[in-house]
Every structure is written in C-alpha cells, then in structure tokens.
Amino acid sequence: MSFGVYIHWPYCLSKCPYCDFFSRAVSPDATLIEAYQAEIQRLPKRTVTSVFFGGGTPSLMQEKDISALLEAVAVRCGLSPDAEISLEANPDAIDMPKMKALHALGVNRLSLGVQSLSDDSLQFLGRHHDAKTARLRIEQMARIFDNCSIDLMYALPFHTLSAWEKELAEALTYDLPHYSLYQLTIEEGTPFARQGVKPADENVARDLFLQTLEQMEKAGKPWYEVSNFAQKGFECRHNLGYWLGKDYAGIGPGAHGRYGCVATENPCSVPLWRQQGTQKTRLSKQERFEEKLLMGLRLRQGFSTRHLAPKAVQRAIDNGWVVRTKNKVVLTQEGLLMLNPLTVLLCP
Ligand SMILES: C[S@@+](CC[C@H](N)C(=O)[O-])C[C@H]1O[C@@H](n2cnc3c(N)ncnc32)[C@H](O)[C@@H]1O
Ligand code: SF4
Q1: Which residue of 19, 22, 128, 256 sits with most ligand 1 atoms within 8 Å of its CB, as the best mutation to test the pocket?
Q2: Which of 94, 95, 223, 284 holds its CA 20 to 30 A away from the CA of 339?
Q3: How confident is the model at residue 106 (pLDDT cuts 50, 70, 90)?
Q4: Best of 16, 21, 183, 195 to mutate for ligand 1, by most ligand atoms within 8 A of CB?
Q5: Residue 277 lies in a domain
C-alpha cells in the first residue's frame, strides 16, 4: 500500500507574480525545523513509499534540515527501501555541490523549476534566473540524478505555436525522463491578476496543448497526466498517489493530507500552524469520491466505472469524450480538452 509524505517549505527568494502557492519571500526562523519534526512524530506508523519536498522553494532548506526530516520520517514510520524522495529546486537556489549533497543524503528525484528557456519569458514571469543558468542547472541535474524533471510554463499571452515548439524541442534535447508542462493560469489575488494580465486566447491555448501532446509523444515521453509527461517507469510515484486517491500525509504550514475520508489541513500561516496544528475534517463518501473523480480523470490510465452512473458514462461516450475499456473510462483527445464538463457530467 502506498503512503506518501508531502513536506511543504513555504519560503522563496522572491514571490513570482503568477504564483498563488502558499509561500513568502522571508527567511525562516532557526527553530522551525523542530516544529516539522514534532509534526512527523504524530504521523501514523505506516511505511512511507514516497516523500516530496515541495514549496515554496525547498532547495533553500539547509542540507542538515532535509536530512533531519528524512531521518524523522524513517524512524517514525519506516521508509521503504525503494522510496521515491523528490525535492523541488529553483535554478537560482541550487548549485552543483548542493545537488550532490542532496543526492548523497537520499534525495533520488529532483524537479527543477526552469519555467522557460527564453530570457524574455523568464523576465515576463518575474523570475530571477536567466536561460543560461537554467541550461547549466539542467545539465548538472541530469549528471547527478537519473530520475529528474523540469517544469516549464507555456500558453504565455505572447506564445506562438512555433515559439513554443522551438522551446520545447530545446528542452527535449536534454532527454530528461520527466517533464511537467503547465499552461499559465491567472490566479485570483496574484499581481498578474491585479495587473490585468490576460491568459492566452482559448483557441491558441488549445492548439498549444495539442501540439505539446504530439511533440512529447514523438519524443517518447507521452502524457500520463494532463500536465505531466514521462518516459516509461519515470512517472512521479508520489503525485500518482494523489491522482489515484491513495493516502498521504501533509507536513508543514499550508500542507494537506488524506487518510481515507479524513482530510487534514494545516493553516497557511507559520505562526498559526505552530500554535494550532492540523485541522481534521471527515469528508462524506460522496465528497471523497468527487475528489477522486476530479483527480483520477486527469490520468491517461482511465477511471473505474464502478461508481459511475451508466447513463452519464454513455453520454460521455456519445460526446466522444471517453471510450470504455473493460471496467474503465479512458479519456479521448476531445475529453482531454473537455475535462471540466466531463467531470460535471460524471459526478453522481
Ligand atoms: C509550487 S511551484 C514550486 C516550484 C518552484 N518554487 C519554482 O518556482 O520553480 C510548482 C510549479 O507550479 C507551476 N505554477 C505555479 N504557478 C502557476 C500558474 N499560475 N500557472 C501555471 N503553472 C504554475 C510552475 O511551473 C512551478 O514550477
Ligand atoms: S513559483 Fe516557485 S519560486 Fe515563485 S513564488 Fe511560487 S513557489 Fe516561489
């Protein structure tokens, strides 16, 4: 049985104007790591199959702190021998010695937030690294980590099909085993939203998405989740756990967890998290099922028809959004573009 532990580190060197993840551009206080350790002490004693350091910018964490948290998880829960241990890194918040050190202390998957290989796009995104640094870090990462990934953002307001195709082709020359490719979304409350930055035109975004699917398929890194592409065997096991509705724990301010129908939520505030700890809520079976549907439909492997209304499944098939294979519904290309109405249709 898989059991993942997500550890949220909500600190960044600066705040990007599009980002609505819980993170702050301040330095953590030195005693903070003890609060993380204390929270790990309250985890169930269940062998952990994946750990994911996310953020924020967890590559800013000190090596001794990452090591202490991994040790705490291993002592409290046990770490399976083949556990996937991922960490998100920013190109301007990691270097080669740090990559080597992380690898030596057990991190076996690095996910680098490159975002773009064009200086103009990086500037537009308010990033502090340039394309040259991004290229250098990708090369360094690939030398140290067999299992690694980059994040790129596309469908920027000025992206054309040819500009994005060229950028993605360059990213593919590194032949990494995994790529996360996100369409820029303008999130409420962010500086981009306040400045009135408009997302790419809907039709352009659709064409960019279809082109991305095709380009990645041809490169031998097909999609396995709408924004995630991997060589066979390099799908992110931790994230697959979320999408497949498995149990996971959330450690740190702003982190969420799921244990069956019990949802855990930590406050998006460091002082409140330290004072109040975790809030637990029992979800109804229906609520948890809807969550699983929302997540599971995003996967290429399909979603079990067991709890779906046969009439709704038939309508989704008639609309050309899914096909049925044995006891699953599997997205078609049209379904991939219609995820929201499809989810509404299939929600019992
Ligand atoms: C939680 S962020 C943390 C990663 C890391 N701090 C960084 O910025 O590289 C994970 C990824 O989400 C993506 N992301 C964040 N905000 C986004 C947005 N508004 N639209 C699309 N993708 C976004 C970025 O690609 C980012 O690398
Ligand atoms: S995108 Fe990454 S670096 Fe930028 S503010 Fe969000 S978490 Fe921090």
Answers
A1: 19
A2: 284
A3: very high
A4: 21
A5: no
Instruction: For residue 304, give its domain range.
Output: 285-348
- 57 in contact with ligand 1, CB cutoff 6 A: yes
- For the Cβ of 23 lying below 6 angstroms from any atom of ligand 2, the answer is yes
Contact between residue 127 and residue 156 where contact means Cβ atoms under 8 Å apart: no
Total of domains in the chain:
2
**CATH number assigned to the domain comprising residue 180:** 3.20.20.70
Q: 196 with 91, same domain?
A: yes
pLDDT band for 348, please (50, 70, 90 cuts): confident
Q: Which of 16, 52, 53, 88 to mutate to test the pocket of ligand 1 (most atoms within 8 A of CB)?
A: 88
Would residue 267 count as lying in a domain? Answer: no
* Dist. CA 13 → ligand 1 center (Å): 14
Instruction: Output the pTM of the full model.
Output: 0.97
Say which residues have a Cβ less than 8 Å from residue 202's Cβ, sequence separation at least 6: none
Beta carbons within 8 Å of 160's beta carbon, 6+ residues apart: 204
Q: How far is the CA of 48 from the centre of ligand 2 (A)?
A: 27
Q: Answer yes or no: is 261 within a domain.
A: no
Residue 250 lies in a domain: no
Q: Is 39 left (phi over 0), alpha (psi -120 to 50) or beta?
A: alpha
325: helix, strand or coil: strand
pLDDT at site 126: 97
Do residues 237 and 173 both lie within one domain?
yes
User: What's residue 326's pLDDT?
Assistant: 86
